[in-house]
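Q: Given only this backbone (494 positions), what sequence would you predict?
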């Protein structure tokens, strides 16, 4: 059975993919390409243009020309809204193509890309399109002899560098507010998942976005990504990815033109489970979803379980049952619960974490490559390690795979201290049937999003981002529009 009604998911893709610059697909200046691989099979899907510094120069120049022309930046917000709404409709109309590309390129479950990722991407764009003509400026309360008008101005050229776990959706968290506010853009998708961004680029032309307003340079981080970060004519750089690379972007900015850098980075989010919670099955469902969805490759994945000693055994047993019951296999199969990781490199990295972790903790379930699946596939079984020490690597470092680290606590104070003891502060969940405790504990956690009795609550209307080394600035909500605009005051003296 196939989930696709208009496409044959087994048909070969067209082999070559070029960069998208100034409204046209063009090869890299070097003519070089790189292979993008299906992590479920190890097969090469397509050769993609390997963009480098000259290509980033071309794309930034096109974006700058488009910005200066005013064709987008000075168009009325209502007119920008109309184009972006058309673009959102085109995403919906092409949902099968975009979903299939993401499932092939990133190993993501087709039932998720079809139902959530791509429709969700269109919904985010629609939300910001609608916001474009509803954000007002200010008149400052100065001496009435004067008039001080404060407006939000587009910054100019925005670079966006994004990861592979939700390729188009993560990009859209940047694209939608940046374009809605009148900026031009250069997007550098992750080298593991470049295909959906290029298919989306074609739609931007179809929707009537003026040439040069949106450009895509595919390629490696240390080449195209670095060139964008160091570029002297990029005004802001929106980044989602690891903390390590976010720090590089901060230094690229310092070495070049002091461009604004907006980093959304990793996490080591904790589930805190208290003994007053009555429905342990509901907690187990949520905890399993929080770590095994998207094969654990989620920045806000609940990768630490902090559980009160009194409910530890019962809860770990329940989550382990759920882990064992997950069907692992092809992302295109509607019956699959968990697909591969994004690449063989990621599989090796995750297995190495597990091996080091298992030397210090008790491996409850998983920890290996599941049997009966193609050995070329990047599969890792859902894994739970119990008794994870609070000073261990597994407690502190982001694995970015289906690996849950369990640690026991005795008091509320201890639970809060443990949850806050990593360098990250992206998200957390609190499971309790006491409102007073939920209020107290959620208030004490250093995390951008705290979900009570659930995991990973998210909506376009709610800001998303972290504290500490999970980054700063916020994606989503109207607050994200602040990142792509600067305040400008015009004084009219009497
Ligand atoms: P990564 O940091 O390795 O790569 C992210 C992007 O940066 C890619 O496009 C990559 O090509 C580019 N890059 C890599 N090295 C570079 C360099 N030297 N110079 C310039 N650019 C470079 O991250 P990843 O492995 O693609 O994604 C996983 C990470 O993303 C995890 O840490 C995860 O937590 C994080 N993430 C965060 C959020 C969030 O919203 N906070 C969302 C999704 C993923």
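A: Predicted residues:
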């Amino acid at each position: 059975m196939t989930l696709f009604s208009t496409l044959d998911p087994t048909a070969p893709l067209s082999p070559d993919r070029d960069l998208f610059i100034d409204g046209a697909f063009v090869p890299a200046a070097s003519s070089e390409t790189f292979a993008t691989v299906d992590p479920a099979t190890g097969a090469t899907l397509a050769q993609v243009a390997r963009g480098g510094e000259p290509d980033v120069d071309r794309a930034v120049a096109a974006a700058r020309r488009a910005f200066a022309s005013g064709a987008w930046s000075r168009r009325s917000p209502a007119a920008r809204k109309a184009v972006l709404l058309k673009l959102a409709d085109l995403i919906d109309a092409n949902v099968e193509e975009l979903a299939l590309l993401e499932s092939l390129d990133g190993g993501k479950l087709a039932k998720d890309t079809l139902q959530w990722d791509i429709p969700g991407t269109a919904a985010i764009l629609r939300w910001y399109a609608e916001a474009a003509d509803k954000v007002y400026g200010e008149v400052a309360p100065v001496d009435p002899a004067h008039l001080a008008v404060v407006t939000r101005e587009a910054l100019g050229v925005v670079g966006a560098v994004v990861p592979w776990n939700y390729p188009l959706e993560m990009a859209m968290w940047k694209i939608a507010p940046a374009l809605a506010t009148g900026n031009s853009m250069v997007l550098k998708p992750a080298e593991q998942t470049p295909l959906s961004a290029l298919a989306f680029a074609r739609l931007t032309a179809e929707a009537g976005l003026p040439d040069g307003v949106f450009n895509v340079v595919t390629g490696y981080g240390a080449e195209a990504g670095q060139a964008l970060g160091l570029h002297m004519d990029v005004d802001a750089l929106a980044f989602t990815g690891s903390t390590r690379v976010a720090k590089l972007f901060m230094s690229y900015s310092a070495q070049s033109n002091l461009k604004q850098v907006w980093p959304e980075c990793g996490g080591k989010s904790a589930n805190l489970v208290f003994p007053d919670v009555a429905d342990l099955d509901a907690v187990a469902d949520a905890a399993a979803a929080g770590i095994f969805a998207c094969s654990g490759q989620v920045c806000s994945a609940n990768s630490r379980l902090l559980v009160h000693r009194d409910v530890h055994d019962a809860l770990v047993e329940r989550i382990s049952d759920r882990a064992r019951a997950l069907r692992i296999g092809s992302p295109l199969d509607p019956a699959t619960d968990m697909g591969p990781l994004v690449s063989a490199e990621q599989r090796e990295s995750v297995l190495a974490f597990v091996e080091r972790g298992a030397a210090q903790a008790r491996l409850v379930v998983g920890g290996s490559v599941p049997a009966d699946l193609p050995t070329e596939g990047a599969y890792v079984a859902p894994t739970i390690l119990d008794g994870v020490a609070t000073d261990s690597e597994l407690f502190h470092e982001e694995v970015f795979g289906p690996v849950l680290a369990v640690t026991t606590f005795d008091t509320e104070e201890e639970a809060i201290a443990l949850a806050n003891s990593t360098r990250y502060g992206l998200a957390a969940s609190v499971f309790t049937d006491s409102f007073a405790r939920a209020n107290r504990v959620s208030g004490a956690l250093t995390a951008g999003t705290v979900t009570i009795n659930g995991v990973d609550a998210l909506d376009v209307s709610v800001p998303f981002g972290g504290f500490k080394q999970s980054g700063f600035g916020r994606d989503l909500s109207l607050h994200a529009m602040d990142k792509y605009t600067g305040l400008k005051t015009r004084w009219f003296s009497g």
